[in-house]
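Notebook entry, structure prediction.
Reason for the run: the old model in the group folder had no record of what sequence produced it. Starting over properly, with the input documented here first.
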Amino acid sequence: MPRYFFHLCRDDTRHQDQDGQVLGDADEAWEAARSAALGLMNSQPDGSVVWWSCHFEVTDEHGDVVLEFPFTEAVEIKRQPN
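New structure, fully documented this time:
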């Protein structure tokens, strides 16, 4: 199974993921990126980090970009009934 690396891009800085995760495919990598983004946003809800401007750059073991996951994709906006 392939290894995927989730590099956090924040404030024009790319924080390298040195370990990665072994996952079945790119769909599982997307789900893992979503889960990690939600976890990070929930860990610091005080607004000290502008998470909506962050994204993960997910690469494979060869360094090729498989997907980019903007943190805004992790958030579900629910409309309030009138």
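Summary: The beta strands are 3-10, 13-15, 21-22, 55-59, 65-70.
The old model has been moved to the deprecated folder.
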